[in-house]
């Protein structure tokens, strides 16, 4: 009788642990969590950060400068498939998230880190490769910006804060 109780307790404990882990990992298949807003680091179990210098992803725009209120196209290109991402524009001067995304591809959704639509993340775990977005600059001047993307190749491998070239604010005196 004692052995069957131990076996039953062990099975129940294993089942609870497994279900908790599966639900924890599955939660991130629908996008980054708000806890990743400031440092853009995934919160998966046992993830391994790879050097930004060895990544296979580039983020860029065809504009070298923008004016307040401009719509800026942003392209993410990759030579390999990946499951998840988080994309933001940040001020060069103080690293604050800036602007809003007004267009995003299927398989992605807006995330509100500090203001509505200031971040884009994945909405499913389908494999992604090349993505296009449109970012809208605030109507007031904010200075030069860079785009940053964190890429999750799998639950265990990611690259954080891959950056674009600087996009200068035009029309400054």
TrEMBL record:
Domain Reelin: residue ranges: 22-173
GO cellular component terms given for this protein: membrane
One Pfam family here: Reeler
InterPro entries associated with the record: Ferric-chelate_Red/DefProt (IPR051237), Reeler_dom (IPR002861), Reeler_sf (IPR042307)
The name this protein goes by in its record: RELD1 protein
Organism expressing this protein natively: Grallaria varia
Phylogenetic lineage: Eukaryota, Metazoa, Chordata, Craniata, Vertebrata
Name of the gene encoding the protein in the UniProt record: Reeld1
